[in-house]
Structures are given as C-alpha cells and as structure tokens.
Design brief:
By secondary structure, the protein is mainly alpha-helical. Helix content is 74%, strand content 0%. The two termini are 18 Å apart.
Length: 179
C-alpha cells in the first residue's frame, strides 16, 4: 500500500501538471495545482485524498509489522500523516489552514520515521534503526538549509525521502527481515 500511495501521488502530480501548462516546477508549489487558479483542481485535491487512503492502509501494515510499542506509535504517526495529506486536498491552496496542514504532513512523516528508527533500535535492529533515525533527522535539516528555488522542489525532495523510506520498509517486509 505504501508503494501504491507513492505511485498515486506522483501520478496525480503528473496529470495535474499536464492539465496546467502554466505550472513551473522551479517557481510554483504543488499545491498551486489544487488552488483556485488551477484548471481542474479536483484532480490534484481528490488525488491527494485518494493517496491518503493508501497511506492509512499502509500504516495498518506497519502496525502488523511492529515489534514493540514504539513502532506501534510510529505506525499511528503514519496514519495521522495520511489524514493530513487528505486535509491538503480538502483545505487546498487559498484556504486558511492550507499551510499548516501541508507543513504538518511532512513534519508528521519525519516524526514517524524517527520514531520507527527508535523502535527498531529497541528491537535490536541496528541497521534499520540507524537508517530511519538518520533519514528522519537529516532530511528536514537538509530541507531547511538548502535554498530551494521553489516550494515544489522542496516538496519533491520531501516526497522522495518519504518514498525512499517506504521502499526500504517494503523491501524488508517482502524479504521478511522485519519480524
């Protein structure tokens, strides 16, 4: 479900960009694709809501994989981040809560990755624990120190970080290395 969520999000962005030729990756934010000036903003907004369903289903899989209460909590953080992704589609650009819900989606996922890392260390899974901690701590630091040319570029970076963690977790799950 995590991989499906990632693919869904990128497809939604691609389709939304294709129907909004004015969108410039180095000047706009992805949320512009769901705002009042976008052509067919419903594609972006409902697309994010759809992707959020897959994230929430993925969080249930993480709960089933969890080896301790800390990883249980991390799966709950992923679930809540899925809710915030849906809220980005509901409170699209141009609405008052938009900046908060979009920022909190990324912050929530970073907290989930860090928390999973702590839980993995408790489970004596040093490699996954250190990887998750490093990713969850360094990704936002990098996002804050690089002078990104646009909101879309830093958003793409954040999405790629999340997708990387999901891909590693999915690979480890498929190989039965998390149990």
């Amino acid at each position: 479900m995590g991989v499906i969520a990632a693919v869904t999000a990128w497809l939604v962005i691609a389709v939304s960009v294709s129907v909004n030729p004015w969108f410039i990756f180095t000047k706009n934010a992805f949320s512009d694709l769901g705002g009042p000036h976008a052509a067919d903003p419903w594609i972006y907004n409902y697309g994010l809501i759809t992707a959020s369903i897959f994230i929430d289903l993925y969080s249930i899989n993480l709960l089933l994989l969890s080896r301790n209460k800390v990883e249980d909590f991390a799966s709950a953080l992923v679930f809540v981040s899925g809710l915030f992704l849906a809220l980005i589609g509901i409170y699209h650009e141009g609405t008052q809560p938009h900046v908060f819900v979009s920022t909190w989606f990324f912050a929530q996922m970073d907290m989930a990755i860090i928390t999973w890392g702590i839980g993995s260390l408790i489970a004596r899974d040093r490699r996954l624990g250190l990887f998750s901690l490093f990713l969850g701590i360094m990704a936002p630091v990098i996002a804050l120190i690089i002078p990104w040319p646009s909101a879309a570029t830093v958003e793409a970076y954040g999405i790629t970080v999340i997708d990387s963690w999901v891909a590693i977790m999915t690979y480890l799950d498929a190989r039965h290395l998390i149990r």
